[in-house]
Each structure stands twice: as structure tokens, then as C-alpha cells.
């Protein structure tokens, strides 16, 4: 029987996973007609959702990946499809929910792992915790083979810092003891593929690289690789930022990734931002 992945909210990380799934049937959802057409040209069976009836796709799937962001009510996928997904639990081999390390909240630059209590301070983090709890409840009730992946800040092709450094809009925003964790999209795909190959229902994985770092260090390295002047420094208190951008600085933590290496055997292709930036620059020319 052909393995079938239903990718709900088929986006950047899901697309990287699909590139690793040779011979699979892929069904992907999107909100936009033009993106659906683009997915079909790439060999993906595209559905518009919300809109199309996903129940036949859920029934056909052996694996489901959810990449849809939560809203104030939690997970919109479950709000619409709770019954259908629960009914499909007996024949599903793997379900992956893409969450975020924002669920841990602020730890003043300290380390967190998958056992750390979830104490988010931002609205984004709080609704992620709510969505995770809804998926856990469904899994407890139905036996759904749920796996939760808490992703650090995602970068990769088309999502690197080089353009801002080149066009002069980059600013190194300085805030004492500010640490972010990151992950290259190809390493996300490697973790998801490893989990699919080695399912462990109920497992939670932090998906982050080995080297959490202040955000200004990444811009410093990008400028060095481009042989351009360092972007100017701006104190956090004086920086002009959108409320969303400023909210990212409300929490500082370093995310441990031991579990993906120990339990899934994943060796990151880009273990730190330096390796990732070098690869991006080589790919972008």
C-alpha cells in the first residue's frame, strides 16, 4: 500500500519534508487558488481548505502533518475536523503537529528541554499551548499516533539574513542576555523523516540546532561572509520595531536538542548558524 501524507497547511517546512518522501502520495492543503495550482504542477494533490471536504483525504492518509497556526480558540484544524481525524486514528501510522519553542516562555537565557514546564508569556505562545493540549486530548481519547515538534526560529533558502545586510536595512538590536535558538528547514525535514521512520506516539521533540545565539551575532556573521560592513548597533529600548517583532524579544532561552539526536539518531546538517549561513550563501551565489 502506497504511503500517503496529508499535509494540512502545506508550507515551507512541509515542502522540505516532501522532498525526502520518494514514492509517496502527497495530498496538500492551501488557502490560495494560485498556490494550489503551483502544488499540482509539482505533483501534489492540492485541496483548498477551508473549503474542500477533507474527510476523503483523511480516510486515505497513512500519515498526517499539521502546519496550521492556532487562533484564539486553539487549533482550527481540530475545530473543523476533530471527529474525522479521531475516526481515522486506527489506520493512521503517524501524525505530526508543528508547534513552537515559544511554548516555554522566558527563561532569562537559561536552557529548556522537553520536560520544562510550559509558561509562555506571549499571546502566540499561549495559544500554541492550548492547541497542543487539544491535540493531546484527542490522542488520549482515540489512540491517535501524535508527535509534537517544537520548532525554533526557522531559516533556509529564501529566509536568510543576507538581503537585509546587502541592502543596508539590517540592524543589530542589542539586548543583554538575549538568546534565540534556530533551525535550518532541511534539518526540520530530517527530524520529521526520522520520526516517520521510527514512530513513538506521544513523543515531543525540540527541533533546534546546537548553538543558541544572540540575534546580532547572526547578522555579524552574515556581514562577514558577504565582506560588508557590520550593520549598525541599536539598543533594544531605542529600536523601531513592529509589536510582533518586539514580542520576540520578550523571551530569552536556549533550547536543548538532545532528544532528536539520541532518540531519532538525527545528525544535523547545519549544527549552528555559521554552517547554515555558509550553505545559504553558496546556494544563493
Automatic annotation (TrEMBL):
It comes from Albidovulum marisflavi. Residues 95-208 form the NAD-dependent epimerase/dehydratase domain. This is SDR family oxidoreductase. Keywords: NAD. Pfam families: Epimerase. InterPro entries: Epimerase_deHydtase, NAD(P)-bd_dom_sf. Gene3D superfamilies: NAD(P)-binding Rossmann-like Domain (3.40.50.720). The keyword Kinase does not apply.
